[in-house]
Input
Amino acid sequence: MTILRLNYASEMRYGVLVDVAQKVHSGRPVSLSMGYLNTIWQRDASAMSLESLAHATTPPNVLNITGPEILSVRTLAEEFGIRMGKKPTFEGKESSDALLNNSNKAFALFGKPQVSVSQMLDWITDWVARGGASLAKPTHFEERAGRF
Output
């Protein structure tokens, strides 16, 4: 058995990066309550998930699946702002803790994700700016009380 802990997968229609990009694009404030995050491109997360089948053990092998970087929500919003030609606005302040994962064990087995954060930002910026389809399901990644 393998237990996978995934946070936060992104693609062009869904994910924490889409949540931030849509807020910047529409001029809505970006919450800083969850000031930092990890993310991984959905394709890379799916590939690691499938590859994990070959590493099942008893007791279960536990793997964190996410990107290698700790990313600042403020910096991500500013990067989207630069790419979109918009100035992001913020609400709240960064908390002293965040829900983060360390995926070094998964990276040792499968290698690091192929899609970089910069590439994700470029793709998602283009998608959101062109009005690409969205799954219209916010991640609520900024929710700190567990109420969605």
Summary: The domain at 2-129 is CATH 3.40.50.720 (Rossmann fold). The two ends are 29 Å apart (CA to CA).
